[in-house]
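user: can you give me the structure for this one chain? tokens are fine.
assistant: on it. calling the predictor now.
[tool input]
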Amino acid sequence: MRRQSLERRSLSPVVVGGLMFAFVGLFVDFRNMLSGVGQQSHHEACQGSVNAQVELSREQLAQVLTVPERARADRVRQIVGTPYCQLPDIQVRAGVAAERQVYPLAFDPQTRLIILYEGNEYAGYRFSFQ
């Protein structure tokens, strides 16, 4: 009987320490402690001119979201018009440069739609939250 009570006491600090570690983890955002990982990908600087009056309406957004990937880029550009700005090109696939255009949402100024084109094809989109 004495042996069981000693084993319980030795586990208690381990359990308490684990709970404290988990509790601290709930309140600390470790993503921001990394070397700007979140900041770099979501708040990239525009290159070239900025068209401050450009905003994407709900209707335009709804139309863009129905366009399938690999459709002609002209089809998407006809819906969205002139971009707010252009982001630096990236390589999503090996050997293929991808062009990115930014469109702030008229109904949510803190959110931007970033449209990706590969050559003359629409390659997709993502949202950027500021």
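assistant: here you go. The beta strands are 85-93, 96-105, 108-118, 121-129. Residues 2-27 form the longest helix (26 residues).
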